[in-house]
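[agent] plan:
  1. take the single chain provided in the ticket
  2. run structure prediction with default settings
  3. attach structure tokens to the ticket
  4. add a short note for the reviewer (M.T.)
[agent] executing step 1
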Amino acid sequence: MSAQIPSIEHQIWLREDDTQNVMAALNAGDATARFVGGCVRNALLRMDVHDVDIATSDDPAAATAKLEAAGFKVVPVGIDHGTVMAVGANRSFEVTTLRVDVATDGRHADVAFTGDWQADAERRDFTMNALYADADGTVHDPLGGYDDLKAGRVRFIGDAAARIEEDYLRILRFFRFHAGYGKGDLDAEGLAACAAGRQGLARLSAERVRAELMKLLGADGAMPVLRAMAAAGILSDVLPEAARLDRFERVLDIETTQLFSSDPVLRLGALLADADAAHSVAARLKLSKSDAARIVAMHTDTTKIVCYLSMREVRRALYSMGLELFKDRVMLGWADDGKTTNAFQWRALLAMADSWDRPELPLTGSMIKAAGVPEGPDVGRVRAEVEEWWIDSDFTEDEFSIIERLKAVVQATVY
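[agent] step 2 finished; step 3 output follows
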């Protein structure tokens, strides 16, 4: 028997004009529309709500007509599966017709539209995602999802193995949701079904796997979940390069105790042992160019990073490495440091980095040419030599000294 479910009527997003207008439009006539999934789940947990999804008994054509009549721009983002995007003045909504799965192949589903709310709930993955709410905030719980939500229990709807065979991505979602919402041990039936069905993960696209993995890595409860995945043989299937669970755990501990924001890319880099692993992950998961470059740089940069760097050494490292790489290397160095009493010094390095403004060498091409350097590659070479001296001088702002150094460099060169 489910506990008394509170209303979510006081949620700010629910009372916004766009939200009330979209619900008024969709509830016109004989149709019923309800909020569904993550927005209801997170609202009940008093967590941030980012995306507002809506289920409707109308078919996509009828829903589109109502939305357009109410002044919303409608984008058919997933029309084959009954989903349109309603774009309001300040918020967008995914609106999906109630549906049932007709056929599945482990990656995709063919669906049929229905007016049956129970059937729509039963086709979803976890009970905590099968929560609905009316426009006034009244919550509907057809499958006991609220009790599971309160208990921190990520439980498949119906037969876990059957849910997984419909879409093998649900294996990763099971672990990701436990990392974000779970308490205690993972659901035994779900864990066993994931382990039994793990070979199906090979059928998934790199993009889908990457999206779930990065969300999992960024969750507060990622560490025990990764250990459970490793024990079940699943971590080696999806992230065989994950050789440094010890460092990953330490990075999580630092982020938590120091009140730093979760950084999934840093955490991924912390899991990897070397540059070869970084290149492998970047290629296999099809990371973005920036994320790939970042995790490779963590493992290829050779700048000396220790907790006792002087301020001058910090400025020099920051200038050559850039802020992001410097902070990544500091975090990995901190995580690898077995002496916990050094935490203050590591934290100080990050504070210095955040307060640092990158200086610009006050030397222009025209100044170099005026000193007698002809146009061409020598201009860049002379500038580089002056810059090297300027860095060694701890970025002096004395323009006279910089000009004198320029003269010395030019005089030592025969043109």
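[agent] step 4 note for reviewer: Residues 365-411 form one domain.
[agent] ticket updated
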